[in-house]
Amino acid sequence: MGGQMRELATQIGVSHPLVFHYFPSKKALIERVYTEVYLGRWKPEWEHWVKDRSEPFEARLTRVYSDYARTILTKEWVRILIHSALADGYINDNYLTLVGERLLRPIIGEARIELGLDDDREPTEAENELIWGLHGGIFYIGVRHWIYGHKFPENLPQVVADRVRAFVLAAREIFPREAGKAAG
User: Fold this and answer.
1) Which of 69, 77, 70 is nearest to 37 (CA)?
2) Cβ(173)–Cβ(117) below 8 Å
3) N or C: which end of the chain has fewer CB within 10 A?
4) What's the rounded Cα separation, in Å, for the pair 51 and 58?
5) Distance from CA of residue 2 to its chain's centroid?
6) pLDDT, tens digit (0-9, with 9 covering 90-100), for 73-104
7) Is 150 left (phi over 0), alpha (psi -120 to 50) or beta?
């Protein structure tokens, strides 16, 4: 751990003791990165937009994921999340829990309501996989660019809208099937 902190100090051009002055441990540094890069960019309006039924469901999701993509698809956001997953998992474990609870689970609930399946049961594996597929597909745009060096889509808003549309179309088949399993 000390070697990694020493390397970090060298990379950012400060002394090793100065890093420890502000961050007494590697964990404290990682927690600060999580707070600044991930929690600092979280927009509570995403949670509000998901539930704002004055707008059609697909339009709400497109609005959320268009803004989400503009917010997260940056070099540091994508690369830190990937690095954390390969290292200690602290950042990605915490962030993915946040996303699941505050964004994806409400989306599942709103999809059920949209489809006339108003119930409060736990999301099924199929429902979870479908929403994580949408969410992960948005994130993967950044992975392709910032990890693999591919170009961003020329029309990112249309790509996001198409992915949301694919989710909505698939949800029309998968969610009722899952509700039937729960009832039967």
Assistant:
1) 77
2) no
3) C
4) 12
5) 31
6) 999 889 888 888 888 888 889 899 999 999 99
7) beta
Q: Which pLDDT band, with edges at 50, 70 and 90, does 108 fall under?
A: very high
Task: Find the DSSP H helices in the chain.
Answer: 2-12, 16-22, 26-33, 44-51, 57-72, 75-86, 90-99, 105-114, 125-146, 156-183
- For tokens 């609870």, name the residue: 101
* Residues contacting 33, CB < 8 A, separation 6+: 80, 91
Amino acid at 34: Y
Q: Report the alpha-carbon distance of residue 99 to residue 105 in Å, rounded.
A: 8
* Joined tokens for residue 57: 């469901």
Question: What are phi and psi for residue 58, nearest 5 degrees?
Answer: -60, -40
What's the token pair of residue 149?
């060096």
Neighbours of 182 (CB within 10 A): 11
pLDDT at 60: 98
Tell me the C-alpha distance between 153 and 133, whole Å.
Answer: 18
User: Hey, what are 103's tokens?
Assistant: 């964004």
